[in-house]
Amino acid sequence: MATRASKSATQPATHEPAGGQASAPQVLRRFRQVFNAVKTHFQQVEKQVGLGGAQVWALSLIHEQPDIGIGDLARAMDIHQSTASNLVKTLIERELVVATKGETDRRAVRLRVRPTGAKLLKLSPGPFTGVLPLALQTLDAVTLQRLNDDLGKLIEVLHADKRGAKKLLADM
Predict the structure, then answer these.
(1) At residue 101, does pLDDT exceed 50?
(2) What is the pTM of this model?
């Protein structure tokens, strides 16, 4: 028994204890792992191509869907339209994307990737959506529902602002 106590004192627990009872510190460590994986991916993207992860994701969607509008881009990324507009503004300023006015509705904007943007996408590490959206897509429906329900409880306890749901992780 003394050996067991000394072993746990020198090595932090990485698995749930027997009986499946997780502690708050263990769950907090898991959140840290998730956030660190997301942050590391965004840092790698920015280091490799000089563009933020959200901007690369937007660029990839524009490349996949030529003539996409800002509203459709916002829906595809599940972000607020003003956030999408800001992403596009940066892409236009960097001459990676070109915006043209719609023929019937002059307020509407159609977006296309320029050759420099296409070259940048080829250099960018994937996944373009980021590691967390890709990981969530690989989970089965039951796990996703359970995770959604449990995170809903956590959000309720935190009294989290609903507007935060449309913010990009890269901006946090």
Answers:
(1) yes
(2) 0.75
